[in-house]
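Supplementary Note 3. Input sequence used for the single-chain structure prediction.
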Amino acid sequence: MTQRSAFLFLFIIVSAFGCSRPPAPTPLPEAHQKFLKILHEKYGLDIVLKPLEHTVWVYVPLKEELLRIAATAEGVRKSRDSQERPTIKYIDTSYVDGRFLIAHDIRLDKNYAQSPGYRPDYTAAYQQASHKILTAMSAYFETAQAPQFFVIVITDVRNGIEIENIFYLEDLKWYMSAGSMPQEEFLKRSIYETRGKTEGIGDTAGRHLAYTEITMPEFLAKQITNRVTFAYQKGSSPPSPDTPKELLTIAATTLGYYEFKDLDGVRLRNLADNTEVIADPATLWTYQKR
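The predicted structure, written as discrete structure tokens, is reproduced below.
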């Protein structure tokens, strides 16, 4: 899905939710039931709910396709003119023993302005299901001992294509209730993964999924990767040619947003030349954008 399509989709969601009143505080088991009731009775959507201690998994089996091919307004483009800019060849972030490891291969590369005249996009079926689920999550906004994370997996059970979204509940509350979080920032904080799994074909119960807790370090590692990808592929301004500085700035800013303290530092590992840069917490925080 394009950045413009994502913004429009999220605008529709928050506009639909913005005028509703916050629900009264409810115990967590009642919030689960309220969430299921809203989806079933108001939206006619039946889902599989798997609540863990800190994470709630929502499995949505659909018989409709989730992705489509859409023509672009600019049509087919092919230019011999190139622009040299830093390009991601590989990026992944993990958290081990108190330290975030960012493995990367980012190098200057020639990019040519070209397009086949079409792009992948979300179908109406996917967008409607996502809208209903995110709106119904208001059931948890005023809940005692609310879960930290939600994992929403929407699966095309005919073709085995699924889209997984991971949200931090406080981010969603901030975005949908106060409306003060910019759409682009919410996109950077939300983890989306599209994948094909033949095990998902015909699976209306979500048996092919491994239901595990999402931890804050795991979420932040995924978000750092997401923000790096956004900066190099979708950002309105080109990233710094100083790759270590760019990565440390993104890491420090991300961790600062969540006031994450269980940290021994960040290690950058350049896969292209096998070099490393290590920043201890004191050094890392000097890169934080405020």
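The chain is about 35% helix and 30% strand. The first helix runs from residue 3 to 17.
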